[in-house]
Amino acid sequence: MRYFIVDDDKASRVMLKNILAEQEGIVIGEADSGVKAIPQILSLAPDVVLIDLLMPELDGIETIQQLKSQGYCGQFIMLSQVVNKEMVGEAYQVGVEFFIHKPINQIEVQSIVRRTAEQLRLKNSLLTIRESLAQFGSVEQPKVQQSVKDIVLKKLHDMGIFSDSASRDIVAIMEVLNEQRAVQLPPLKGLYESALTKLGVPDGDISKESKAMEQRIRRSILTAMEHLASLGAVDYTIDEFEYYAPRFFDFQEISMRMKQIQEESFDIRPVKVNSKKFLHVLYMEVIEERK
Q1: The Response regulatory domain covers which part of the protein (predicted)?
Q2: Alpha helix (H) ranges present in the chain?
């Protein structure tokens, strides 16, 4: 595996180089800023770029955006000393595969590097298979578009919501948004009422049922937060935790609950639920997967 390191802290670069060398990785270049890194990465085309989130001039996210816009197709591992839910969520959206937390921990780096290597090998194997089939004149079958319901239920299941009573509500909400081709999420009250109409609830009962739906969805989101926090408390490199926790929830709330679980604390402060963010992110994911 060929690596490129972008970090304005020299000590971090040296430590990463040493750890990668032990893993038989080859560091083909390094830079102390995104501005200096971009031309080198485009020229050297490393398999993986390890890049710091916070840097002067261009931060890690801006550097990744510029690299992708100029044709770089490798993988990214983000180095981060801060836990800022907005920045972490944005990093995942621009294509970051994994996070390494600062201060750098050798065991964590080795674990992430192994997983990245396995992912790249799988990707290359699939590419080889496709190329082999193409040589035999195989015709690629058109991709069948998944239904909104299938996408939503799969994601809810991944977040630990198993046949939850709110699953039907959330599916109906996503179907309404998809039918409306909504660009932004409308006020939740109106959205709940539209979903209830779609579910066949009589007009006279909608006001009462809307409040009940709101509570069901809040309880369901709490269930998901508890499930992900439990996963993260055991191993924060678990795929479901890495993918869903920073995208769908307030990461500080998840982190607080993880700490309580790890410390077996009985002094539990209620976590905050942001239903609008959860539904908005879920809708964005539905749109992306149906493209």
Answers
A1: 2-117
A2: 10-22, 34-44, 60-69, 85-93, 106-135, 148-158, 167-180, 188-198, 206-234, 239-248, 251-263, 275-289
